[in-house]
Design brief:
CATH architecture of one domain in chain A: 2-Layer Sandwich
Strand content of chain A: 15-25%
Shape of chain A: globular
Oligomer: homodimer
Structural class of chain A: alpha+beta
Number of helices of chain A: 18
Largest sheet of chain A: 7 strands, antiparallel
CATH topology of one domain in chain A: Uridine Diphospho-n-acetylenolpyruvylglucosamine Reductase, domain 3
CATH class of one domain in chain A: Alpha Beta
Distance between the termini of chain A: 33 Å
Largest interface: A-B, 92 and 92 residues
Chain lengths: ~500, ~500
């Protein structure tokens, strides 16, 4: 069985227990006529061919595939509003879609939901270099937001490996975390305002809100991380930070995860305001990456149980390098590190990051991977990886071919208490799945962790929220969904 | 007429149009028996004497005074829960109270509401120095949280002039901003989890949540800034930052508000990661303060139209001072500043801050003050102060006695687009009030600003939200209130 064919199995076939909600109308020619009446030709694709709509129906992990025949690309908030009002009045189900880079099956249809793509809403609306307030349409690609702000000596306060595809609106809808949350904080703090079209077509906007605004409940917060289940984000106002003038990094090898934590405390104290990332990888992550980057010289002399990449960013290269050099020297002197190197120049800095950024594609390169994204108290962070690896090893599933698993590895953002668990496999099997779930979720629940640190809920984790949330929280969440979307037409079969 | 008698007029008398909600039960002896059955003697004060309960019935500005005869001080979440369930079942109105330092009449009763003080819930629950997660009861005084964290080489990510009295829970309930928001961001980003008792006594808790958690709608956000209208915050988990090892400040004189903005852009670019406060004061603010601090030597040679205090905090004193010195020199060279001084030592740093921190008591020292707290786009920030001063001047109300107004001044947090307007008066008069309101609110609405940047809504601004929020936002806010508190017993007559 090969993994990752060009088409994923239809979600409806892979999960036969999930049934289409019969209260949703099946789209007919009158509906299509209506959409044609409000949209121009380049704002609509209608097709019966799975190939033609594959990039909209299927997620990028190729794990989920829906069966929509209609994708709408409105280029204005008013058109989004008309579409939603019509769909709500006619009980047509809708899945909002940004760059379609999510990892939990949140942004593709399950059955025949209309796909509402934001990609034609791609304009920067405003930037105020004095306050740093950046306003844009939801469909602006993150890379373009970064470029625009860089040209104005600022940065978008978030970066992700999917930056070339993901949308600003999608990032906000999924409350993405990314590589620099440690420095710039979460979107709940950085998003200043949102323009949202509600399921009934009403537009609720706080896009002109200022940095401080204490006039009532902060309603916009509910849409951050709601994955398009209670409204369609059409515009975002976000606080951009001043662009750092200096960047540097060290890459080091460490014996134990306890020492990784000690090093983090030391970095917070000594690098403090210039510390912008503190990432760890275990031995297995780097073994996969060495194979994947074949030929690229490894920055360290020896191999270690753990590796850490520390990034600094600040306004003065000389000061920053002095701090980082002093930190590295004293960490080596005190034996916290077995080995460590500091980037000599920009190219070297990029090379060090390559060893971190290549872990996911490296793990995926053997055929496919099972992927979990969790947060735990730091003292417990690596334990979930150890527990999972032990379990899979005891079942005799890890090793050379024909064993199905190449490696079970852990890496992630120490600064945020966030571990990614990648099970690199030659093939997906029901046996592996059965060993992983619900074991992983139960383990996280026992440690009071989160079963989704940054990837969200989507289709994959619907029904699993009780591992991280209490009954009363889930009840109140359901109330939120019912209040905003009483017909349940927005992103159905997912989330809550 | 003297201002600030030891007792404020009863709110019920000062605002006769506000009527007691007749659906609320009047407390009787059976109710008191119940509270005595679940609370110990030091958790309850019952009194018919206005003097005895004055500090709970009256706000610290002495503008509002309620008529409660009962203050409860439960020392556990479970007791808060029992109290709320009983009050909800019996339709007894309740006002939650922290340090009672708010500025909008939010934390005192209007009529006979039971006062639910959190001051007996004053324990630190947990601190993890690795992640920086600090958990405490809501009633911990901010000063004590600062002290605890300072002893552990961290800082509470917020500071306020009322730090000796305000509670951590109160600060979260009112989404307070304060002096270092520019550096550490808002509570919506820093609060990791909350424990909240709902009006019906149910406990909803996310206090064990980790830094990253994307498992559903972020319900806790609604309680941040809700001013105790939909639940009583009993516990807070918040991200503490590493304690800066170095602090410094410059104080400077500037000709125009345009130049203040230019200087801010320069500071963001050059001081960047060590910039922790950028405060401005106008000429009038400092004139009042010079009188108030009589004898204290003024740090500058001359007087100016505007003054700016810039604070840096970082991990390396030599580096920080070098950056700050270079910034000051180049700002003087390029004539952005007319004059500027840098603190020579810790005592000097404290003295420079005294000129900023003394503005509010200075304005209040002539008898009293009208106080507004607004946010605006930076380009418009000072214009509201100019417009108000012009209006009051044209009415001939500003000048030496017997004119009622001493000065109308503006100062605040440039970094957050937040201006405080203080009208220092010899007496409060209906004529001044009539000139100020609704003029101030209408002016802010015309510039799309916020009529409450950080002080909140409370009793003072209930009914004024439409100046900053749309009809649909207000409708959704009312839905939130009705959903969580269908009997409306929690902090009635206020907010929405």
């Amino acid at each position: 069985m090969t993994v990752q064919p060009s088409f994923a199995q239809l979600t409806a076939e892979a999960y036969p227990k999930v049934k289409r909600n019969s209260s949703f109308k099946v789209i007919d020619s009158a509906d299509k006529d209506y959409f044609r009446s409000i949209l121009s030709k380049d704002e609509i694709i209608e097709s019966q061919s799975p190939e033609e709509l594959a990039s909209f129906n299927q997620d990028w992990m190729k794990k989920y595939r829906g069966q929509s025949n209609l994708v709408l690309f409105p280029n204005s908030t008013e058109k989004v509003s008309k579409i939603m009002k019509y769909c709500n009045d006619n009980k047509l189900a809708v899945v909002p879609q940004g760059g379609n880079t999510d990892l939990v099956g949140a942004s593709v249809p399950v059955f025949d939901e209309i796909i509402l793509s934001l990609k034609n809403m791609n304009k920067v609306r405003d930037f105020d270099p004095v306050s740093g307030t950046f306003k844009c349409d939801a469909g602006v690609v993150m890379r373009d937001a970064h470029q625009f702000l860089s040209d104005h000596d600022h940065i978008f306060p978030l970066d992700l490996p999917s930056r070339n595809n993901c949308h600003v609106g999608g990032v906000v809808s999924t409350n993405a975390g990314g590589l620099n949350l440690l420095r710039y904080g979460s979107l709940h703090g950085n998003v200043l305002g949102l323009e949202v079209v509600l399921p009934n077509g009403e537009i609720i906007s706080s896009i002109n809100a200022l940095r401080k605004d204490n006039t009532g409940y902060d309603l916009k917060q509910l849409f951050i991380g709601a994955e398009g289940t209670i409204g369609v984000i059409t515009g975002v106002s976000i606080l951009a930070a001043a662009k750092p003038k200096a960047l540097n990094a060290i890459f080091c090898g460490i014996d134990s995860f306890d020492t990784v934590q000690d090093l983090f405390v030391k970095a917070k104290g000594e690098l403090s305001e210039i510390l912008s990332a503190f990432e760890f990888m275990d031995r297995g992550s780097i073994e996969c990456t060495v194979e994947y980057l074949k030929g690229m010289p490894f920055p360290l002399q020896n191999h270690h149980n753990f590796y850490v990449l520390i990034e600094t960013s600040g306004s003065n290269k000389i000061h920053d390098d002095e701090k980082l050099h002093a930190f590295l020297s004293s960490a080596l002197d005190s034996k916290l590190l077995s080995e460590g190197v500091m980037a000599k120049d920009k190219a070297d800095y990029e090379r060090l990051w390559t060893w971190r950024k290549s872990v996911p594609p490296a793990c995926n390169s053997y055929g496919g991977m099972y992927k979990y994204d969790m947060s735990l108290q730091l003292k417990d962070l690596y334990s979930v990886s150890e527990a999972v690896t032990k379990r899979l090893n005891e079942a005799g599933l890890i090793g050379d071919a024909p064993k199905p698993i190449v490696k079970s590895v852990g890496y992630g953002h120490v600064g945020d208490g966030n571990i990614h668990l990648n099970i690199a496999v030659r093939e997906f099997t029901k046996e592996i799945e059965g060993l992983l779930e619900p074991f992983v979720y139960e383990y996280i629940a026992s440690k009071k962790g989160s079963i989704s640190a940054e990837h969200g809920v989507g289709f994959h984790k619907k029904g699993h929220l009780h591992y991280s949330r209490s009954d009363i929280e889930i009840r109140f969440m359901k109330d939120v969904k019912n209040h905003y979307d009483p017909n349940g037409i927005l992103n159905p079969y997912k989330y809550i």
